[in-house]
Amino acid sequence: MRRSVDRVWIAGALLALLAAAPAAAQYREYYVRGKVQGTAGEPLAEVQVELRDKSTSRLYHLKTDEDGVFKFAGLPHGIYAVAFRKEGYAPKDDEWDLDAPQSRMKRVDMPDVVLVSEAQVQKTQRIQEVGARNKEAAEKVRSRDFDGALALLRPALQQAPDDADTLFLLGLAYSGKGLCAEAVEALTRVTELTPTFPGAYLQLGACHRKLGDPSKALAAYDKHLELEPGNADSAYNSGLILFETDRIDEALARFQAGLSASPDDPDLHEMAGRCYINQAKFKEAVDHLVRARAAASDPDKQALIDGLIREAERRN
What we know:
Blueprint: H1 2-25, E1 30-37, E2 48-53, E3 59-63, E4 69-75, E5 78-85, E6 92-98, E7 106-109, E8 113-114, H2 118-142, H3 146-159, H4 164-176, H5 180-193, H6 198-210, H7 214-227, H8 232-244, H9 248-261, H10 266-278, H11 282-295, H12 299-315
Parallel strand pairs: 1-7, 1-8
Antiparallel strand pairs: 1-4, 2-3, 2-5, 5-6
Helix pairs in contact: 2-3, 2-4, 3-4, 4-5, 4-6, 5-6, 6-7, 7-8, 8-9, 8-10, 9-10, 10-11, 11-12
């Protein structure tokens, strides 16, 4: 009788174990592996990773190792709300869909998780704020509200003292107010921060010219033309300096370069005509002056060009 009891107990235990086996399997369905890193690709250790099963609210959590790696072994199927937290970094949330039941444990390699430091977040916010102010300031400069532009740019510069765009707009606003020395300071800083910023050299040339320093103005225009060959504005302005210092051949070369880029520019045609008069090439002078006269609308300008044309025709 004792043996029959034993056989019944063993058989019952086996049945209970077999009945429990499927239930146990459902709690060890997924092996999830992943890595957390910073924006430069560096592994982040000690990142708190928390999973919450959205249907049962069951929680799982661990921290990444020194290589930034996390591993969850034996996760039951479900949809998980995932949170990544580390001091000094912006939190990040995700959702993992592991809802498909598995008969055996399935490995899932998650894409790398990137956490952004709070310092980087703050820097991005500052850049966005400065950018918004710069956009508004640029509109004020365009509408010649230079005081309004300066009121916006000075606080922006306190937030980002080495922002080239802010400094460039500051230079434009100072130049618009006739404060050329202040403009030169701001624009020179732009060229130090961004040596390939063409507009800064163009404005520096204009400011140095107003300050009575033609050599510095010419150097600035030359640099601008290196970056933007044939630019009509720099060609005209630098050619004018050369013309005024009796470097006629060099001046003419600048005006011709400008006309290659802007063939209908009346100011360039006028100055090319003046150069040809100085070279005693009167036919060429008349050709350019006639084209300048055709585009002139100001009566005084028309009269001036008419006089130049008569002189060239008389001497031809």
